[in-house]
Design brief:
344 residues; mainly alpha; DNA polymerase, domain 1; hpI Integrase, Chain A; 2 domains; three-stranded antiparallel sheet; globular; disordered N terminus
């Protein structure tokens, strides 16, 4: 199985229908405002889900109290309930409190002519200490290659292609679905080692369009699985511009793959994995393998499109001892030769 997550039946159509109408109106106004300033559709969807959770809790525990009238003590009660009754992680709680805080800012800054004297209180409630509640899965490239080869043996060429695309690019799950077949023409290989997309794709970032980036894929690692999937596509008669597709054999229709399909594929991959598999673990693996190979931090930052090299600390799986071993041996400080990407 993948990493375990705590799920609670907090909301339901019946509960949502019984939420204080004032809270529903407030939420809808807030979400419409977010849409008007260009927030991403996924952000708005997540805010709505988190606010509904909170309002259902208010329905059960605070007599459906209007959000504007809540006290710091009541916000603190919610925090305690989420942590100690629902078993939420500190990260999950922080996410919901961020939605509540954003709603509070909306009331203070946009509705100040209608709701007089409102003061945001959510941010005054101290967050619990951030702590890891799930063990991170650490993979090496060879681990993933072995799984991909098993998928090939099973005739699951597209799943193998998707898996190795993630391993060879370090892109997020949703971004994998935005790769096109044309990205992998030989003319798009730079420095003899990297596919560079000829057009930018949407990655995580503010606004409906997110951050637009050219993306890079390690050609040596990926090409075998790309070629196998392209041969299978030709056999099936798939003509879609998208690399990864939802293909209906009965109708012959191939549509752009959805991230939810990747979630279902993760179950198959997980059954072959030495550790719980989730797509984001390959983002960590990609960064770690580049570091392990001696690729300079600045190059990794450019490949990933990060504004700051500090993100390396977030995504690196390398232990301190392993990093020190690159620079020190029995003779003292080693002279380290930089690795070429074509060697990876």
């Amino acid at each position: 199985m993948g990493r375990s997550t705590v799920y609670n039946n907090i909301t339901s159509p019946e509960k949502i229908a019984a939420i204080n109408p004032e809270n529903i109106t407030l939420m809808n106004d807030f979400l419409e405002y977010l849409e008007s300033v260009g927030r991403a559709e996924s952000t708005i969807k997540n805010y709505k889900a988190d606010l509904l959770v909170f309002f259902c809790w208010c329905e059960d525990n605070l007599n459906n109290k209007y959000f504007v009238d809540l006290t710091k003590r009541e916000i603190s009660r919610f925090q305690n309930h989420a942590l100690n009754v629902w078993g939420w992680s500190s990260n999950r709680l922080r996410t919901v409190k961020a939605a509540l805080s954003s709603l509070s800012n909306f009331i203070e800054n946009i509705l100040d002519d209608e709701i007089k004297g409102f003061k945001p209180i959510v941010r005054k409630i101290e967050n619990p200490v951030k702590e890891a509640v799930r063990e991170k899965s650490v993979f090496l490239t060879q681990d993933i290659v072995e799984i991909a080869d098993k998928l090939v043996e099973m005739g699951e060429y597209q799943k193998a292609c998707a898996l190795m695309l993630a391993a060879a690019s370090g892109r997020r799950k949703s971004e994998l679905c935005r790769f096109k077949v044309s990205f992998f023409d030989d003319e798009n290989i730079i420095y003899g080692s990297l596919y560079k997309s000829p057009e930018k794709i949407r990655t995580k970032g503010r606004g409906k369009q997110g951050k637009q980036l050219n993306v890079y894929v390690l050609a040596k690692l990926f090409k075998k699985y790309f070629d196998l999937w392209m041969a299978e596509r030709e056999r099936l008669g798939i003509k879609s511009e998208w690399l990864l597709v939802n293909y209906n054999k009965a109708t012959g229709v191939a549509e752009q793959l959805s991230p939810t399909t990747l979630d279902s594929w993760a179950t198959t991959i997980n059954s072959m994995s030495k550790a719980p598999f989730y797509w984001h673990s390959l983002r960590h693996m990609f960064v770690s393998e580049l570091q392990r190979s001696g690729v300079p931090d600045g190059v990794i930052q450019d490949i990933q499109g990060w504004a700051s090299a500090e993100m390396l600390n977030v995504y690196s799986d390398l232990e301190t001892d392993e990093q020190l071993g690159k620079y020190f041996d029995e003779n003292g400080v080693k002279v380290v030769e930089q690795t070429k990407l074509s060697d990876i």
